[in-house]
Amino acid sequence: MNNYQLAWRNLWRNRRRTLITAASVFFAVFFALVMRSFQLGAYERMFRNVIESYTGYLQLQGSDYFDEAILDNGFEIDTVFLEKLATDRNVKTIVPRLESFALAAAGTSTQGVIVMGIDPEKENRVTDMRNRLVRYRLTPKAVEALKNEKIPSLSGDLLDIFINESYTGTGRLMIDLDIDEKDTSAILPVIRRHASFRNEYLSAADTSSLLLGSGLSDFLNAGVGDTIVLMGQGYHGSTAAGKYMIKGIVRLPAPDIDNRIVYLPFSTAQALYGAPDMATSAVILLHSNDDHEVIETAGRLQEMISGPLKVHTWKELNALLVNQLEADNKSGMIMIAILYLVIAFGVFGTVLMMMAERRKEFGMLVSIGMKKGKLAGVVSLEMLFVGLLGVVSGIIASLPVVIYGNVHPIRFTGEMGKMYTDYGFEPVMPTMLPDTYYLWQTVVVLIILSVAIAFSIRKIFSINVISAMRS
Amino acid sequence: MIVEIAWKNVWRNKARSLIVIAAVTIGVFAGVFTMAAINSSVVQRIDAAVNEELSHIQVNNKGFRSSGDIQNTLRDFAWVKALLEITPGVKEVTGRILIKGIASTSAKSAGVEITGIDLERERQIFTLSEKLIPGTGTYFESETNFNTAFIGEKLAKELNIIRYIITDGALAKLKEEGIPSEVISRLETLRGQRFVSDKKFSDSFEDLLTTSEKKKYSMKIKEAAWSFREGSKIILTFLDVNNMQTGAAFRISGIYRTNNDMFEAMSVFVPVGELRSLTGMSEGTFHRVIARLDENDITDKVTPGIRKVLSGYEVLNWKEIQPDLAMMADMMQQIYGIFMTIILAALAFGIVNTMLMAVLERTRELGMLQAIGMNRRRIFIMIMLESIFLSIVGGIMGMAVGGAVIAATARNGINLVKYSEGMEAFGYTAHLFPTIDAGFFLMTTILIVITGILSSVYPARKALKLNPVEAIRGE
Q1: What is the pTM of this model?
Q2: ipTM of the complex
Q3: Where are the domains of chain B?
């Protein structure tokens, strides 16, 4: 009989102990995986929200703009140069922006806002802006009308929860209102009739219209067709002031930005701030957004630049968010470390018991000629099997949860949802599909096992046959 | 009697019991301490919110909070104020004017909320005047003909009012702090240069110092070089009562420092009279009344009464203004319960295994006990007690160690400097002073006993299933 067979059979001699030990490993691995998956998934979502609706993966900025985000640190657009940069193999296109700050007033409401001058068509390729226009809105009037339709599968309670919510498409709306796929086709026309929201995207030629974040629109109590006055400080200290009509309302997933953003066509923003031909940044749209590729591309582009310009990656552009999530990440890791520490003690205790209990047996085996090396090999395999049984079952059990959570993320509503929004995060918590974090759990368990194995091997080699058999 | 036997049984196999006890000790310690650290950040955040930012109760016209309309002043300020003042539990009352505007210097501008305050009364309600950074002036005490403003450090940095300069004084100060003169001599090349941002200053000595030197000294260097020119001015621009753009230069009276970057960057305080005359608001008008209570605990009790008498106004307490904070405080107990349950569940596996072992190796003995007349219930209780002892001894040791470490670290706090930027952006301090309610220990003890009981059920049932005759014959 070979070592594997021996080890396997030994395991099932004390079935209960084997199962309980494997269960403890299973518990730790399953729990750690699910928790990590939610944590990492939430981070990924937060980053993606802010990157895809705002910063982009790479930005070109005036070299002082990063430290001091003011118009005066912007750069003059050199089309020829930008085209040259765009020839890099990972660059799709480069989209200049003019970003500044202003006070926005509508009626008697005033609010400090971010003003972003964008090229409507190009920007659409970066942030998918056209699809972020609000298509449906559950205004109190719409909710009232929908309730009066008395459709059985349309819950009045859910309508009340999501009152005043804006939607850019039907997908989220159907999920929020908990409408089954089979009912969708029947309900959709009714919702279209009552809750449709009319607005339009910007065109480059617009000189007196703008787009507004949905949160900002609520705050200023201003809708499509209303007038907004923007005023602020222009280029080189000039005064910037202008009057614009709201052409459309966009909903951005990051509330922090949604509550504060105004989009103007690029040339209109340049005119407002008295900064013709200027940009404060340019988003570099990439073919591959893979971490490694982004950094490499940034390096290549920086080499091509000679003037006072600098390329920044999304990590640099969102340094604060990176720092916040890192702190949160550490707290999650501490929690898991405690869990594994406790489990390690449990495993170690079991090994200690097993060694004590089988002293006589080991003594016997050695005395009838089994080599201590072979015995140590068999015992090591036993422990490896128990550990791997726990790890593998933990991984298998976690998969359905993780996959389900990825497709149907947890959505926070009520106070909890408001708390997330107040902190500038979308109140959604998806899971992250299996990635390297799965590997790490296995590594940690292997480390715990190797300590236990080292202990038992030492024990076996120091065994004294006579006294062991007598015990 | 049974208690005694169970206790002695625990110590029959010392090594085995000690391992389980050690596991429980470490698990409980880690849980208690981690929670104390997390709890402290919430407690400190609430303290700051109440004492620096919100106070206990705020009253304004309905609709003011969402629109911030300058003309939406309190209908009858004097009446509201008088009424609050005679309400039992209210300690001090003050009025505020709140206006959105832009703060700018020649270099930069930022959106702010300008608050017109009654200087003396504010001092009774908020601790902000004590948060003045030494050397940046006073809390509206210096004589000047200018308009004056009290602003946050974050805003001052954003507007480039604060800069970094290595002066002779700064070098001398570094020497005093005990930084090697060899390091200081390298910094001397930067003498006299001005840096407008933290980042630029850090970059300037990036190549001058080694990584370990930077790690050790950069905070001290920044502190020494931190400079503010007294008498600096900012321009505040806003809309007046007729919706016309207006504004004026304000001299910085002082700069305050809190743990909340958002608050520091947004909140500019000016004497209410100055703001009124600039906006054209009439004498005696206010947007909001703020009340401080005798103590925080009575907030929930006092609020409904005030709301009833002031039914025409919006009356909110700090928990309603920042529901996230109230929720955090309420959730702490739950988070702690979940956290501890997970740790104890992990520990339970070890306890079950150990107890099972203890039962199976005593098959013969347990059979004997039954044979001589010990009833099954008593055996069950004995095994359960052994399991509870294992967990409770570890639990008490874990709580004792946890309590001691909390006390030790609470004196100087734990400073997570690396994460201060991210945490302060949310208003949470990165300098934690671990603290935990006595209630947490009680809850932990209960959870530990439950763990002991639950993890004994399976082994104890195994013991009961033994047939006395077979058990004695066995082996």
Answers
A1: 0.77
A2: 0.75
A3: 2-48+325-473, 63-160+230-311, 162-228
- Whether residues A151 and A256 share a domain: the answer is yes
Residue after which a domain boundary falls, among A261, A294, A314: A314
Q: Which residues in chain A have their CB less than 8 angstroms from residue B345's CB?
A: 27
Least CB-CB distance to B111: which of A103, A418, A419?
A103
Sequence-ordered list of residues with C-beta below 8 angstroms from that of B311, at least 6 positions apart, any chain: none
pLDDT in tens, A349-369: 888 888 888 888 888 888 898
Rounded to an integer, what is the distance from CA B155 to the centroid of its chain?
A: 22
DSSP at A133: B
Distance CA A400, CA A433 (A): 10
Mean pLDDT across chain A = 87
Q: Reduce the DSSP state of residue B240 to 3 states and report it.
A: coil
Would you call B47 helix, strand, or coil by DSSP? helix
Q: Dmax over Cα atoms in chain B, in whole Å?
A: 104
Mutant choice from A342, A352, A353, A423 vs B, greatest count of B C-beta within 10 A: A342
A348 in the same domain as A246: no
Decide if B421 and A320 are in contact by the 8 Å CB cutoff. Answer: yes
Together in a domain, A360 and A462: yes
A154 and A284 share a domain?
A: yes
* Claim to verify: residue A11 and residue A137 sit in the same structural domain: no
Q: Tell me the per-residue pLDDT of A217-230, one tens digit each, with 9 for 90 and over.
A: 988 888 899 999 99
How far apart CA A412 and CA A441 sit, in angstroms, is: 28
Give the whole-angstrom CA distance, residue B434 versus residue B437: 11
Q: Tell if the CB–CB gap between B245 and A231 is shorter than 8 Å.
A: yes
Name the closest residue on chain A to residue B203, using Cα atoms: A67
pLDDT at B474: 60
Under the banding of pLDDT at 50, 70 and 90, the label for residue B388 is very high
Same domain, A215 and A255: yes
Q: Please count the structural domains in chain A.
A: 2
**Domain end position, chosen among A252, A284, A314:** A314
Q: What pLDDT does A1 receive?
A: 65
A305 and A394 both lie in a single domain: no
